[in-house]
Amino acid sequence: MRAEEVAQDLRSPVLEPGPRFAGATTTDTRALSAATDDERATTARPDPGTTGLPRRGYRAGILGVGFMGGVHARAVRTGGGVVTLVAASDVDTARDAADLLGARAVADSAEELIASPDVDVVHVCTPNHLHVELARAALQAGKHVVCEKPLAVDVHGAAELAGLAAAAREADGRVAVVPFAYRFHPMVREARERVRRGAVGTISLVHGSYLQDWLLRDSDDNWRVDPALGGASRAFGDIGSHFCDLLEFTTGHRIVRLVAQSATVYPQRVGADGVTHRVETEDAVTLQYQTDRGALGTAVISQVSAGRKNRLFLEISGTESTLTFDQEQPETLWEGRRDASRLLVRDPETLSAAAARYSRLPAGHPQGYQECFDALVADTAAAIGGAVPDGLPTFDDGLRAARLAAAVGESVRSGGWVEVSR
Ligand SMILES: NC(=O)c1ccc[n+]([C@@H]2O[C@H](COP(=O)([O-])OP(=O)(O)OC[C@H]3O[C@@H](n4cnc5c(N)ncnc54)[C@H](O)[C@@H]3O)[C@@H](O)[C@H]2O)c1
């Protein structure tokens, strides 16, 4: 896409969903299809690759107004939607955040938000232990759902939600998404496309890491440290799930066997209230694995790696070339070849159509993390409109992550190799 076309695309009018969806009821998810045939065609027609993401906003209710609540709210509004309601752990927290999130109103409770006829899509951005009950309630109320990862803190909960989502999809085409948002970096799509085209050859090794340092000190604390709120697996459940999703999404391989070990650097941490408590969740995990297509790999997952903020790093080596993606440098992809290596730079004019589709800005105008969520919400809206966007992560992918986390936990406990159920 040429720069002027990108600028034109960004200027093009955004459909205002409020009036068009007026009259939607809690169970009337088909209100979204009250658009004219022409409008529906706009949504349902996947872009050919150079015209950008489809724009169709929806009315969102956001549960949780912390880091992710803000990211989701911006994405909803960028996509031409409105945040009709927000709710948090208490009304004052929600009220304090409402302006920042651009919310039209505050709900007294999650139940009130889910029941509201002014909400088409419920976004669950709360601590992990609440995901199952909130996403279940939203699906039972007839809503589309975007539920943060981990979808559930165990396989049982994730399987239940995946089953409910499948039934909702079957019944009335409802959409249930888990934000494995790193899939939406254009250079991730470029890597996936090159793997698909055979440019990497037969993949022999796929390895990497996801490193952060925000829990480096024993005075660092968060609800994620408490297994009752974050789940039994912390480092792997929180960010290892992203690594494995990125690996499987980009390569098309599935991890079938793994062996893992974990470390808890501090047996105790001091909470914000000054109280010392025992730590039962891991700070770091290392794992080795095999894929269903014969590749081998290793990964290091850590929340205590000084200086590393959000370094999700994936390297794919095949018989022809190596591709390396670093989430902190998402505008580039390294391509290694025996004769010559090069740094591929995001440029919608030269990328594959699959990657150019997610390029919202011209080359040299960096885009990053927030744009991934913008694209995820745009594709969610397109899916609600009847399209089938390539690579939209669903509750099935959330269940997959829960199975991998369970296998990691089992291996840590047994010390041996574990088969990962599909
Ligand atoms: N996809 C990603 O890249 C990504 C990144 C960060 C976090 N996450 C996930 O997003 C979720 C939220 O993480 P965060 O970092 O925003 O946490 P946070 O602590 O910043 O915010 C949590 C919010 O949940 C609210 N909350 C608590 N109980 C609630 C209830 N009963 N009803 C409604 N709201 C309630 C709190 O008031 C707070 O606003 C987690 O599941 C996390 O794993 C995903």
From TrEMBL:
A Pfam match: GFO_IDH_MocA_C3
Entry keyword set: NAD, Oxidoreductase
InterPro entries, sorted: Gfo/Idh/MocA-like_OxRdtase_N, Gfo/Idh/MocA_oxidrdct_glycsds, GFO_IDH_MocA-like_dom, NAD(P)-bd_dom_sf
Entry-linked Gene3D superfamilies: Dihydrodipicolinate Reductase, domain 2, NAD(P)-binding Rossmann-like Domain
Domain GFO/IDH/MocA-like oxidoreductase: 188-323
GO molecular function terms attached to this record: nucleotide binding; oxidoreductase activity
Region (Disordered): 1-55
Ranges of residues in domain Gfo/Idh/MocA-like oxidoreductase N-terminal: 59-167
Protein name: Gfo/Idh/MocA family oxidoreductase
